[in-house]
């Protein structure tokens, strides 16, 4: 059996999404910027997709800018904040995705932007009191950039609480919602937030497409010049079938969201309890309260042993695909910057199990059996 438990890295494409995309990969191939019938057909498909996405977010179609994915969207939010909004200071955390962390560092090094890091609590949550101290201590125009759901340990922040603080101190607010878009409902008219980001492949959509939500009251110019596409914010011929696939994936996700939340949370809870029973010394990384933790991610630390250094490799050759952290740092010799930043970080073997809509209990049981064999625990 081959078991895929790395859905935080990417999810398998839903067959219904592929079905929706196929006509735009074959017969409907016109350039959306062309004024003839072929172009009008594809332009209409993009605008229908934009409206569908906007409706699910209770946003306006003009607030949705399609991108190549979450990394571009995060870059666009921070860079446009500096270039167009006059941001001079970015407040973020040291456990953000590198799309935010490295962009903030680049803006610091090349544009003299002040970058400050909010402290973390023992469980890895953002220290909201310290965030307020940072916001109140400087008059520089500021952007706060904090991810909604951490891609490695699964901690969730309260978008409402951070939004209220930013509003109080007149700061812009950007949240990387790549891990949570398509998994939770968003109401952009109820939350005062300037930017959120999306990558379709995190909720069974295609790779290479996402979007940036830009609040209509946040005036930015453009990040990518070259054409008038995406209302002048992002030049270049649109990823037509990717956009259609993103909208279809959003539709499926929202039509069955509560059902999927209950089902996947049940699998996560079951696996966590089985691992704790099997290995009492195992450490759960991040928040254990399900209401403050992403239901698709379970990050644990196995005690160090002679076998632990080859743990991920041995799971892989036994048909169980997991990760040690973010896929964006896999293959490097640098450990997880997220786990290293936790106040109670441990010297142990981290493993991230992450679940999706197609994960089954049978697959979880198979993975648990292989873990049991590797740590030599008798049945």
Write a concise keyword list for the protein shown above.
379 residues, alpha/beta, Aspartate Aminotransferase, domain 1, Aspartate Aminotransferase, domain 2, 2 domains, seven-stranded mixed sheet, three-stranded antiparallel sheet, 11 helices, 37% helix
SSE topology:
Blueprint: E1 3-4, H1 15-21, H2 37-57, E2 64-67, H3 70-83, E3 89-92, H4 98-111, E4 114-117, H5 128-136, E5 142-145, H6 159-168, E6 172-175, E7 195-199, E8 210-214, H7 240-255, H8 257-278, E9 283-284, E10 297-302, H9 311-317, E11 320-321, H10 337-341, E12 349-354, H11 361-374
CATH class wording of the largest domain: Alpha Beta
Low-confidence stretches: 329-333
In terms of DSSP E residues, the strand content is 5-15%
Number of helices: 11
* Shape type: globular
Number of separate strands? 12
Q: What separation lies between the terminal Cα atoms?
A: 20 Å
Q: Which H/E pattern describes the elements?
A: EHHEHEHEHEHEEEHHEEHEHEH
Structural category: alpha/beta
């Amino acid at each position: 059996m081959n078991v895929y438990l790395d859905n935080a890295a990417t999810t398998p494409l839903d067959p219904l999404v592929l079905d929706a995309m196929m006509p735009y990969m074959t017969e409907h191939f016109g350039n959306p910027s062309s004024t003839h019938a072929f172009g009008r057909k594809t332009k209409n498909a993009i605008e229908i997709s934009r409206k569908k996405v906007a409706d699910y977010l209770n946003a306006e179609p003009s607030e949705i800018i399609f991108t190549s994915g979450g990394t571009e969207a995060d870059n666009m939010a921070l860079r446009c904040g500096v270039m167009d909004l006059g941001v001079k200071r970015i407040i973020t955390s040291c456990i953000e995705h590198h799309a935010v962390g490295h962009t903030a560092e680049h803006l610091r090094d090349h544009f003299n932007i002040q970058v400050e890091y909010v402290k973390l609590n023992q469980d890895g949550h953002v220290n909201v009191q310290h965030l307020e101290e940072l916001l109140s201590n400087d008059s520089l125009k500021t952007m706060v950039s904090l991810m909604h759901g951490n891609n490695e340990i699964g901690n969730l922040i309260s978008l409402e609480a951070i939004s209220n603080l930013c509003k109080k101190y007149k700061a812009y607010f950007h949240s990387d919602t790549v891990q949570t878009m398509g998994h939770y409902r968003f109401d952009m008219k109820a939350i005062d937030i300037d930017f959120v980001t999306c990558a379709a492949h995190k909720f069974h959509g295609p790779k290479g497409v996402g979007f940036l939500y830009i609040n209509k009251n946040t005036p930015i110019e453009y990040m990518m010049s070259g054409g008038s596409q995406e209302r002048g914010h992002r030049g270049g011929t649109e990823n037509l079938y990717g956009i259609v696939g993103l909208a279809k994936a959003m539709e499926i996700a929202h039509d069955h969201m509560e059902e999927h939340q209950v089902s996947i949370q049940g699998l996560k809870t079951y696996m966590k309890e089985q691992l704790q029973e099997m290995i009492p010394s195992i450490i759960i990384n991040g928040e254990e309260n399900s209401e403050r933790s992403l239901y698709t991610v379970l990050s644990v630390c196995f005690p160090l042993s002679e076998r632990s250094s080859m743990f991920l490799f041995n799971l892989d050759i036994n048909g169980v695909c997991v990760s040690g952290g973010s896929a964006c740092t896999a293959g490097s010799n640098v450990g997880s910057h997220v786990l290293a930043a936790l106040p109670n970080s441990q010297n142990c073997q981290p493993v991230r199990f992450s679940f999706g809509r197609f994960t089954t209990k049978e697959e979880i049981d198979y993975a648990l059996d292989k873990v049991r064999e590797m740590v030599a625990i008798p049945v």
